Amino acid sequence: MTSMVKIAIQPLVAIWMLLFHPFYVSVIEIQHNESAATAEISVRIFTEDLEQTLRKQTNTPIDLVYPKNKTLVDKQVSAYIRQKLHLTINGKPCELQYIGYEIQNESIWCYFEIPNITQLKTLEADCNLLYEFVNVQTNIFHVKKGKLETSKKLDYPASHLNFTW
Fold first, then answer.
1. H/E element holding 17?
2. How far apart are CA 113 and CA 95, in angstroms?
3. How far is CA 141 from the centre of its chain?
């Protein structure tokens, strides 16, 4: 094959791979806000993946971008993530308090908070977000404590991570 043909084919192969071999990833960002004594949690998921998962779970149509009943959708999103993401901080299980969500391009950002976190010494995460949707799901964690940032990932079927400072 000539180099011109290779140059012409390479972009087509890359596009084909993106179309027919999509990736499934969610990002969970956890930031300790020392001045507010909170842990702030942001969960980014592809909107279509979360919609399909919620449809299967609830057996009802759901539209996160243009919800007919925003209150109901908020409850469904909050319940799903709280069912699939469990955090233990400094040895104590924590309850995620739902703040809301926003759509950004093809993703949904879901926001949670955990109050009364004056120090962050250890963090354990049990997470199986979208594992029932596809068995190639990856959940990436970015944890920020002061100026320190640590990142780890969970590939299906792994569901447990530990962070220690």
1. helix 3-20
2. 9
3. 8
Q: Is the pTM of this model over 0.70?
A: yes
Locate the domains of the chain by residue range: 22-164
pLDDT per position in the chain (165 positions), as tens? 455 555 656 665 455 444 554 778 999 999 999 999 999 999 999 999 999 999 999 898 999 999 999 999 999 999 999 999 999 999 999 999 999 999 998 899 999 999 999 999 999 999 999 999 889 899 999 999 999 999 999 999 999 999 999
Instruction: Identify the residue whose tokens are 């977000």.
Output: 129
Tell me how far CA of residue 157 lies from CA of 46, 59, 126, 130, 153, in angstroms: 19, 25, 11, 11, 11
Measured CA to CA, the distance from residue 148 to residue 71 in angstroms comes to 36
Distance between first and last Cα of the chain: 54
String of DSSP letters for 48-101 = HHHHHHHHHHHSS---SSS-SSHHHHHHHHHHHHHHHEEEEETTEEEPPEEEEE
